[in-house]
Write a structure and sequence with these properties.
Blueprint (H helix, E strand, L loop, with lengths): L8 E5 L19 E2 L3 E2 L18 E7 L10 H9 L3 E6 L7 E3 L3 E3 L9 H23 L15 H4 E10 L2 H12 L8 E3 L12
Parallel strand pairs: 4-5, 4-8, 8-9
Antiparallel strand pairs: 1-5, 2-3, 6-7
Helix pairs in contact: 2-4
Length: 206
Amino acid sequence: MPRQQRELMVSLWYPATHTSHYPAAQLPVSQQLLPGGVPLPTAARHTGAPVDRTAGKLPVVPYSPGLHGHRGQSTALVQDLAGRGYAVVTMDHTHDSGDVVFPGGRPEVNLMPPGSTSRHTVAIRAADTHFVIGQLGKIARGHNPDVEHKPLPHGLTQAASTKHIGVFGAPLGGGSVAAAMRRGLQDRRRRQHGRPDPRIVGRQAA
């Protein structure tokens, strides 16, 4: 894939309050149907609801899906983590994920060239993960990294804890986790990671 600027679509899950006043969130448009056209149900989440501050500081956990996967995968696990007091950031890895639809309906398709190696893909995903963690740091410092500068959920700046960061993913996402850990070994914030799938890809697993 030629070098070019990429945008990332992410979803942020967190314990929320006063949810009845906010619209129920849908999965991304390209991810609402199972094979055969079977629609997926609405997730138990609400767009823009304020953070439940009674949960205290929220450890941040980025999630990397499998190859050609999307951030809507593992929704049940992500939702459970959010309910237990974590801020979970699910990522679409643009151009190696399946179709990604950006605001306004702009699609980005898979552009991985034939013969792409898992090692190369994992390295890109690790860079994506570090970029997202950096943006979370900006949020914790009171900045808004959203491209369209949409208002952040009330209380998020004070709640997100960038001193406690974990990463998880499956199955290629597990390789991305290992790569991100290797890249950030000197950063104590990223010493905790999870890999639900026993398979792991890439030399970083050694």
